[in-house]
Amino acid sequence: MAALLLLPLLLLLPLLLLKLRLWPQLRWLAADLAFSVRALRCKRALRARALAAAAADPEGPEGGCSLAWRLAQLARQRPAHTFLIHGAQRFSYAEAERQSNRAARAFLRARGWDGGPGGGDSGAGGAGEGERAVHGVRDAAAGSGAARPVREGDGAAPLAPGAIVALLLPACPEFLWLWFGLAKAGLRVAFVPTALRRGPLLHCLRSCGARALVLAPEFLESLEPDLPALRAMGLHLWAAGSETHPAGITDFLAEAAAEVDGPVPGYLSAPQNIMDTCLYIFTSGTTGLPKAARISHLKVLQCQGFYQLCGAHQEDVIYLALPLYHMSGSLLGIVGCLGIGATVVLKSKFSAGQFWEDCQQHGVTVFQYIGELCRYLVNQPPVLETYGLTEGNVATFNYTGQRGAVGRASWLYKHVFPFSLIRYDVTTGEPIRNTQGLCVATSPGEPGLLVAPVNQQSPFLGYAGGPELARGKLLKDVFQPGDVFFNTGDLLVCDDQGFLRFHDRTGDTFRWKGENVATTEVAEALEALDFLQEVNVYGVTVPGHEGRAGMAALVLRPPHSLDLVQLYVHVSENLPPYARPRFLRLQESLATTETFKQQKVRMAKEGFDPSALSDPLYILDQAGGAYLPLTPDRYSALLAGDLRI
C-alpha cells in the first residue's frame, strides 16, 4: 500500500525537477557517476602502483621512477605482448625494456657511472631537484662486463646526475628507447620540436639548460650552420644513427648497442619528491619563442591513467600519428599506452591516404588526434574529445559522447577534477571582478575563462627560466582572498545541461566597432560555404581605426573557385555587421604549428599590405556591398581614410 501511495510522487518527481531546472543536469547523473567511479579507481590504482614502487628494492628496476617501474612491470607481466608497431618493425614489452636498458647504460657511462660499488655518483637528481642519495650501492648489473671509459673527444664534461639531455628526433622507436633510457639513468629530458633551427633552437636549448643533444642523422644537413654554436655551448653531441657524422658527433645507437640489456638499479631514477621536474616540453610558439614547460614525476604518473579514463583496455591497438615532442603524443599517447599495457601503432607523420589501410592491417581500435586531423578522415566521427594543456593542471573528458562537447561540468566531475568558468573582459584581457575584488562565475551559456585551483594535488610548475615567463598564468583572489588558480587562457561555455564547449582562446577574440568578435563564430560561418575547405580568422590593426578588423585566410576546396558574390551574401546573412571580415587572404594551405594549431599571431603580424604579401588579397567595400581585390591604390586609399571599412 505504501508503494502505491509513493508511485504518484515518483511520477511527479521529473516534473518537479524540471520546474526547479535540475532535470537537464540530473538526466546525465548515471554517466557522471560512472565516470567519477572510473576516475577514482584510476587514481587509486596509480597510487597503489606508486606506493609499491616506493617500497620496492632500490637496487631493482621496479624501485625507480614511474616510467622505469611501469616498463619493468609490463616486461615481467606481458613480456611477449606487442608494445610498439612502427612500419614493418614490431617490439614487445620485453624488447622495449631491453632496448631502454641499453640506452640507460650508455647514458650512465656519460655520467661516469660504472655500475660498481657506490654507483659512481649519488642518485638521480640535479641541483635543486632533491633527488635521493644512496650509500653503499652494490653492483646491480650482474654480467655487465668490463667497464669502458667515458667517451671523450667532444669537449663536453661528464653529465651530472639530473642533467638535461635534449632529443631532436622524429617519432620513431629510437625516440622512445632514448627517452626511457634517460629516465632510468636519472637524467632529465627535453623534447625539442623538430622544425626548430638557428635562433629558436638555440633559445630552447639554453632556456632548459641542456647539457647534451641527441639528433636524427637526417637533420644534420639542415643543422650544419648551427653546429658551431652548439659546440660553443659545450654540449655532448650524439647522432641517433650510423651515417657519416661531422667531427665531434658520434653514433649514440652504436654506443648503446655495445651495452648489455640487463636492468639498471631503480635508485638511479627514483625521485625524492614526486613534484621534481623530470621532463621539459616546449610550448608550440604561437605567441612567440617556445617556452620550456616543466613536467613533474606526478604528471607523468597521472598520464598513465589517460586511456583508462577514456575507457580503453589492454587489448586495444592505439594509432598515434602525433609528434612525440608534444604532450599529446608522448605523455598521453605513449605513457597512456603504458598505463593500460596496450599496443601503439606509431607513425612518423600523419597520412590520410594510408590511415584506413593501416587501421585494417593492424586492427586499430583507438585513434588519438589533435587539431584538424579528424576532419581529414570523416565528417562526423564518433569521438571522445578531451581538453588539456601541456603545462596545465586541469583536463576535461567528453565521456558521454555528446557531439561538440569537450567535457562535463557536473558537480561530481568537479569534485574529482576541480575547475571553474569565470567572467572575462576581452577588451582588458583580465577577469571581471566584483566590488570585493573577487572573480565572478559565469551563467549557463555565457563564455568564461577556464581556471583551476593550484594546490599540492593539482600543481603548476611553470617554465624553465625566469618567473616572468609564467606571468599571467596564475590568478590570485579568485573566489577567496589568497587563493591561487591556474589561468588556461581559454574561453569555454557551459550549457544548461552541464556540457562544456570550447569557445575561443583569449588571444583569438578581438574588438571591432565597439563589439567583441569571436574568431570561432566567424570561422564557423565561413566554413559553411561549400567552396571553402579551411578558414583561419584573426584580427588585424588598421591605421586610423580603434580595435582590430577581422581578416580571414581561406583555402579553397578543390575543384571550386572563389565566389566573392556568394561569400558576401553569406556573411551578410549570417554575421552581424561588426563580425564580417574586412579582409580576405587566399592561400594554398593554412599556416599551422607542428601540432596543427593555426598560426593566428604570425598571420596578424603579416597584415594586409599587397606590396608585402604575394597571396591574393580582398577588401570589404561597404559602400558597394562587395569584396574587391585589395590593390595598392585601394590600400593607399584605406590608409588615407578615403576607403570606408
Question: Could you characterize the architecture of this molecule?
Answer:
The chain has 645 residues and is α/β, with parallel strands linked by helices. The chain folds into 3 domains: 70-112 and 160-374, 3-Layer(aba) Sandwich (Rossmann fold), CATH 3.40.50; 398-459 and 472-505, Luciferase, Domain 3 (Luciferase, domain 3, Roll), CATH 2.30.38; 510-640, ANL, C-terminal domain (GMP Synthetase, Chain A, domain 3, 2-Layer Sandwich). 30% of the residues lie in helices and 20% in strands. A 7-stranded mixed beta sheet has the order 7-6-5-3-4-8-9, with helices on both faces. Helix 13 links the parallel strand 10 (317-320) and strand 11. The chain starts with a helix and ends in a 6-residue tail after the last helix. The relative contact order is 0.09.
Which terms summarize this structure?
645 residues, alpha/beta, Rossmann fold, Luciferase, domain 3, GMP Synthetase, Chain A, domain 3, 3 domains, seven-stranded mixed sheet, six-stranded antiparallel sheet, 20% strand
Helical proportion, percent range: 25-40%
CATH topology of the largest domain: Rossmann fold
| Beta-strand segment tally | 29
Structural class: alpha/beta
Estimated radius of gyration: 27 Å
Number of domains: 3
Using the coordinates above, name the CATH class of the largest domain. Answer: Alpha Beta
Shape estimate: globular
What is the CATH homology-level superfamily of the largest domain?
ANL, N-terminal domain
Keywords: Fatty acid metabolism, Ligase, Lipid metabolism, Lipid transport, Signal, Transport
InterPro entries: AMP-bd_C, AMP-bd_C_sf, AMP-binding_CS, AMP-dep_synth/lig_dom, ANL_N_sf
Domain AMP-binding enzyme C-terminal: 521-597
Enzyme class: ligase
